Amino acid sequence: VKAAVVGATGYAGQELCGLLRGHPALDLALPMRGRAEAPPSEGVLALDTDRFGEVDVVFLCTPHGAAAPLARLALDAGAKVVDVSADFRLKDPAVYEATYGAPHPAPDLLDAAVYGLTEHARSQVSGARLIANPGCYPTSVLLGLLPVLEAQLVERGTPIIADCKSGVSGAGVAPTATTHYGNVAGNFSAYKVGQHRHTPEIHQAAGTEQVVFVPHLLPCFRGILATLYLTPILGVGAGQVREALAECYAEEPFVTVRSDRMPNLHDVDLTNQCHLGVAEAYGQVVIVSTIDNLQKGAAGQAVQNANLALGLEEGLGLG
Amino acid sequence: VKAAVVGATGYAGQELCGLLRGHPALDLALPMRGRAEAPPSEGVLALDTDRFGEVDVVFLCTPHGAAAPLARLALDAGAKVVDVSADFRLKDPAVYEATYGAPHPAPDLLDAAVYGLTEHARSQVSGARLIANPGCYPTSVLLGLLPVLEAQLVERGTPIIADCKSGVSGAGVAPTATTHYGNVAGNFSAYKVGQHRHTPEIHQAAGTEQVVFVPHLLPCFRGILATLYLTPILGVGAGQVREALAECYAEEPFVTVRSDRMPNLHDVDLTNQCHLGVAEAYGQVVIVSTIDNLQKGAAGQAVQNANLALGLEEGLGLG
Amino acid sequence: VKAAVVGATGYAGQELCGLLRGHPALDLALPMRGRAEAPPSEGVLALDTDRFGEVDVVFLCTPHGAAAPLARLALDAGAKVVDVSADFRLKDPAVYEATYGAPHPAPDLLDAAVYGLTEHARSQVSGARLIANPGCYPTSVLLGLLPVLEAQLVERGTPIIADCKSGVSGAGVAPTATTHYGNVAGNFSAYKVGQHRHTPEIHQAAGTEQVVFVPHLLPCFRGILATLYLTPILGVGAGQVREALAECYAEEPFVTVRSDRMPNLHDVDLTNQCHLGVAEAYGQVVIVSTIDNLQKGAAGQAVQNANLALGLEEGLGLG
Amino acid sequence: VKAAVVGATGYAGQELCGLLRGHPALDLALPMRGRAEAPPSEGVLALDTDRFGEVDVVFLCTPHGAAAPLARLALDAGAKVVDVSADFRLKDPAVYEATYGAPHPAPDLLDAAVYGLTEHARSQVSGARLIANPGCYPTSVLLGLLPVLEAQLVERGTPIIADCKSGVSGAGVAPTATTHYGNVAGNFSAYKVGQHRHTPEIHQAAGTEQVVFVPHLLPCFRGILATLYLTPILGVGAGQVREALAECYAEEPFVTVRSDRMPNLHDVDLTNQCHLGVAEAYGQVVIVSTIDNLQKGAAGQAVQNANLALGLEEGLGLG
């Protein structure tokens, strides 16, 4: 079984290539640059969409907007597609346009796309040809939140705070003032408060606009930790919330509900794991959710989805 | 005007000594170790309470419990006291006992103690003999919250989330697993969720138990950033909240309400400043408050309070 | 094939357990604490030397002095031993005593011990029952130096400077002032100049006391980079030195002589690789050698040696 | 007394502006951008050479090549000049051209320029109109080496290794792959081995080409630590070398020869200090020299030189 990775020089693309090199069944046949004009570099080919027919799956790690046309070519060539960009995450093209400032590049493909938050979409992903790999922040928030919402443990209409912190690899491989060592080390900041593009994705997947998502930039390279605050319905506390999570994820190899202590970034570093913890604080239930943003938040979940879509064992090549 | 610093080898004590060495009017006469059995070290004397009479002010940077008896000796010797520990922050000795697990060591002195959140207690601090220097987390939270609560812009009974992140200097100079480089670098965690000792202090000073405070440990040395989420009363948004903050702090040299962007740790690094920012997100008003935990969160505010109490210009020796 | 790891909670021990959990042929049967009085912890058993007979190989990751008696018990129980401590590295018990301040704990076993710098001791390691795994610094220095010394390209009697820099994991998992985040981050220092215990080991393996070794502590967790300066014999420059290295390591899977640029820590991070680079500077030939101190400098090389000693493919379980 | 800073947005320029804002006698009248086409930014004016006549001293923090023409304009306008760039450090325009790849932009001014390694050029700097502020690496190397060379304690013709390590602020404020957090954190590398432009400067000031200088990039923001290895003349050891240093710097407020332990970056962080330590290792004398690269290695020494040139007390405004 063969794979192409488009955008192999970005952080998600690099991580994906690393995972595929260690994958026992999926072969990294075509690591490609993400843009037509980008020349090949060490170990990475020039973009060549004519070769999509040689592989079984194409992973797209390009910027949003650039992925959709490539997805069409790959699908036409008979390959399955896992899109790590944002192009197929939002179901409503009007929301896409409002969020990304341009018309959706392939609205006719939206119906075919499956939102691949694997643990909550396993059956759809299994048969899918086009998978929208979730954003890093949404993955961290939704894994902690969905079982609790589904169990109807959250008071309707109350705000659910998702205070999220990400390592700087989330800001990409391009050198900018944001990624300059001098601005990251010893620093910490909130950014795009009330304006981050992952918000509509969270709202769509959660089925509610109660979630107030605020991202922050950590002085480290990898990892996301989301601290979620919710108002439980009367009579419910941390115990029932933890139970709902534990029950939902009892058989999941990549999600652990800890009972010993709150999880931290090191618990999931370089793995496809999500660790969850629950506590109570002055009437709020606090859920802490941690992932490696480049693995479960991007390349790892992409491999997990590809495994499923290709009929392989879901956890192959993942730690 | 002369000062003693007890506990000069801890991080707050070191910072205080540094500030006093650059202070134009307050002379660091007696830098002392914090415990009777601790021998003198380079530039730091053994603890000698008999010498408290030689100075005008004694700064106490000891662990809680140890400060109160030293405060009594210093007051008896005629010195003013700025207690950087937690001993005189809580007005109710029962709350102290519930929080710190031991009876209050000097309940008779509690009435005399002034809670020194300087910008909100200037007149009391000016005449005070015994000042309880606020905790680092409470300082960051309260500076952002008090003016908004006083202006009655927060919906009664709704939770106010205070998601706080601190550099590791807050965990102290003692080598522990928590402060080991291998556990801090590349890591991030929530801790003592629902159980941190700064909570009663925040509740007391805010005059409400609405505040849900959760601390986190950042992979950097200095600084606190608090992200505050509140439900405004009907018709109120970020604009009015910012206005309330801007009006309250219009004349304050050490508090800045930014309108350009959200503040970050570097904005206040190595200064006694607090920077505030305000935004709106899906019905919540989000206030970001940043301080240097060792300066405005400890030694800086202690100097600011001592300046006031001793009749000096409030900002002397502070950046 | 089964393995025990004694000292599984230290950094080398943790790394070794991680490698063995991913090893296709060597099974981590007995992860044990390093000291008799240390209780079992999560996933780690109490030390139980009676069980050494259950395994084929015992890895010793204890402090020096403690390993030798354990090695004897393991050998007596029929297991092979890879000693990651310093107990069997120095051939001369008098040098051991001068270096470690105590008589050698098992001088009768010294003859049987093979110094396991794998690429330079493959045939001896293959049949060995007791392998002294080299120190982290010596590994980085010797891999860059031995082929050049063997090719007699260094001017006799001239100093060979080995300016070495290590991440803080080399200082161990115990919380000390040295490993406190506040002393590591943003800092850098030379230490034990002229006194480090790895010096006799380097001199013994290099067969000369020309090497001047000075270690430094880097503000990062993993990795060693050694910058080696040598005076070449007349007519020799960087070209011949690089050639000597390239020839020596042409078939080696774990040593790469780069010609594109000087290597850095990221090149070898989390791998068992050593990367080498060569340049000329004002008459000196400069060799830069990089390894991951916990892998090729400890646990990785230990697995490589165990693979050889047990008749497995040398690179199994290594990246 | 008034100052202009040209290039106020780079790291050296920012540091200089910070020092001047706290300077009791030198007033930061004109903080300017470094390039004609760069627009003014917050607190920094556009470059306006017509205003050089308004100040007593112009600090040039521009790239090399750009400083010389500005220096001429400033001198013509009657201001003194401290050039923090490389334009006036090398006495021989041919060496400048070989080093910087372009003809010297103002060879007629070279004679007037004083190389401002303050402790070794005090009398010349005092009367100077044009001061070439030394490079950061040369400052760290020369402060440790010059007294030893002057005392003739180094064996003639032997290599003097200067293995230097710098924080990433030395690579400048511009976002590049080199300064990207992802490439700096957890990494360490040697660079420009045998080719760094500070080498001719070191050779010129040392009066010998014995010095073999190799720079490295540390995973931290500030500071340089140079480890110097030299072959002493017969009968000389670390003791005499330390004595030579101690005697030379006995009265110097900004250079300390430590006898307690080797210095580290934290010892000199945010100060204009240089700390030196000496030890012996296998026949070599090892000198460790540490400075803050943005202070003693750039802006601090620039202020020290300006103080002298303007007839102010040398240490004014410096810590």
Task: Please tell me about this protein's structure.
The structure is a homotetramer of 319-residue chains. Chain A has 319 residues and is an alpha/beta fold. In chain A, 29% of the residues lie in helices and 21% in strands. Chain A has helices at 11-21, 67-76, 93-100, 122-126, 136-150, 181-184, 198-206, 238-248, 265-268, 295-309, and strands at 2-6, 27-32, 57-60, 80-83, 113-115, 130-132, 160-166, 189-190, 211-217, 224-230, 255-257, 274-281, 284-291. In chain A, the strands form 2 sheets. A 7-stranded mixed β-sheet of chain A has the order 8-9-7-10-13-12-11. A 6-stranded parallel β-sheet of chain A has the order 2-1-3-4-6-5, sandwiched between helices. The longest helix of chain A is centred in the middle third of the chain and has 15 residues, at 136-150. The relative contact order of chain A is 0.16. The model of chain A has no long low-confidence stretch (mean pLDDT 97). Chains A and B meet through β7, β8, β9, β10 and β12 of A and β7, β8, β9, β10 and β12 of B.
Give the helices and strands, then pairings:
The structure is a homotetramer of 319-residue chains.
Chain A: E1 2-6, H1 11-21, E2 27-32, E3 57-60, H2 67-76, E4 80-83, H3 93-100, E5 113-115, H4 122-126, E6 130-132, H5 136-150, E7 160-166, H6 181-184, E8 189-190, H7 198-206, E9 211-217, E10 224-230, H8 238-248, E11 255-257, H9 265-268, E12 274-281, E13 284-291, H10 295-309
Parallel strand pairs in A: 1-2, 1-3, 3-4, 4-6, 5-6, 7-9, 11-12
Antiparallel strand pairs in A: 7-10, 8-9, 10-13, 12-13
